[in-house]
Amino acid sequence: MNNQHIFNNIRVVLCQTSHPGNIGSAARAMKTMGLQHLYLVKPNIFPDAHATALSTGAADLLENAIVCETLSEALTDCALAIGMSARKRQISHELVNVRDAASRAVSIAVKQPIALVFGTEMSGLSNAELDCCQLLAMIPANPEYTSLNLAAAVQVMSYEIRMAVLEGKLEAHPNQPELATNEALEGFYTHLEDTLIKIGYLNPDAPKKLSERIRRIYARAKLEKEEVNLLRGILTLSLAPKKHTKY
After folding, report:
1. How buried is 79 (Cβ within 10 angstroms: 0-12 exposed, 13-18 middle, 19+ buried)?
2. Rounded to a whole number, what is the largest CA-CA distance in the chain?
């Protein structure tokens, strides 16, 4: 089976990158491993000659890069978003190493688009950005010195993706269910939050913390497309006027 369609289903998303050189170096790292779809969320400076210079032959990735205002926009059509983190966090996302993450990513990319999401150089992904992801991945670096350049992290993850593609058994099962896309999940979360506010369970003045926990519960569930439709149907009926039966 030609594996090119799997690589085509994998995008790298860089969030609020501060230095344009890191964008160019990340593009070079991607291209060496066969990845070509680069998304940039509110980069500090782009396009830029320094990014082109450091891309070293991968300028085509920069020319075709898609610049977005929000992470949700960058994740359009994705069935899985893997957030990359340099440190453990006090959150309830499932955390795996990059090799396990690559294996999961590729198994889904056989049929649907997925995203590898990297945060800004100084602080990584924010909690709000992590809320858009379903899985968190770490590079098991030296615990005494875990600092890793953004482009180097992209290189490591891109390598693991390539090895997972080349070594894996990648035939899609004909009955493999279609996972819900990012926009379907965002629509569900909005619908759920509105419903919880209407029934008095969620405080509209301070919904953030509970909303984050709810997102993480469903992220672990890996919702399928039909499951999201089912849940939204339940939400719709829960607020529908009750019909009274006469006896």
Report:
1. buried
2. 80
Match domain 4-167 to its CATH number in 1.10.287.3610, 3.30.1370.100, 3.40.1280.10, 3.40.50.2300.
3.40.1280.10
Q: Contact, 86 vs 124, CB < 8 A?
A: yes
Q: Averaged in consecutive runs of 10 residues, what is the pLDDT profile of the chain (247 residues)?
A: 87 97 98 98 96 96 98 97 78 85 95 96 88 92 88 97 86 76 94 91 78 86 93 90 61
3-class DSSP assignment, residue 201: coil
Residue 100 burial class via C-beta count within 10 angstroms: exposed 0-12, middle 13-18, buried 19 and up: middle
Residue 182's closest CA among 31, 51, 39, 85? 39
pTM (2 decimals)? 0.90
As given in the structure block, the two tokens for residue 179 are 């996972």
How much is the pLDDT for 239? 82
Where does residue 56 fall: left (phi above 0), alpha (psi -120 to 50 degrees), or beta otherwise?
left
Tell me the CA end-to-end span of the chain in Å, nearest whole number.
64
Quick check: 53 and 88 in contact, CB under 8 A? no
CA distances from residue 173 to 166, 169, 170, 176, 179 in whole angstroms, order as listed? 18, 11, 9, 5, 14
Query: Positive or negative, the Cα torsion across 132, 66, 150, 15?
Result: negative
